[in-house]
Amino acid sequence: MRQIPPLEAHTPSPVYTMLRFRQWDDVLREPAPPADLRFSTGIWRYARGVAFATTGRAADAARERDTAVELKDGLTYDEPPAWFAPVRHRVGALLLAAGRPGDAERGEWRAASAAAA
Q1: Domains along the sequence of the chain with CATH
Q2: Which of 36, 61, 90, 116 has the smallest set of CB atoms within 10 Å of its CB?
Q3: Does the reported pTM lie above 0.70?
């Protein structure tokens, strides 16, 4: 992977599968990938955020998703994007469900501002 970076896009396939089949406990038991594999780590964080959110652990979900957003924002732009899930939309939905519409809106505006820069 480190020698052929585009191949990293395939390493999260088991996590994607767990998400698709709602295997929340398996997602949460999945060990973290090496920290230098930022894409894989971001997908792992995203998956944990989804698992936490669907099992009622909103604070843990928010923490994981915030980290996933930061990691996604740090990736090199690619078209089509390797990261298939719209993390900011999920974060926004979680914030709305938690009664924090202002935070949800600020997150989307931050993303739009960064994209326009």
Answers
A1: 5-116 (1.25.40)
A2: 116
A3: yes
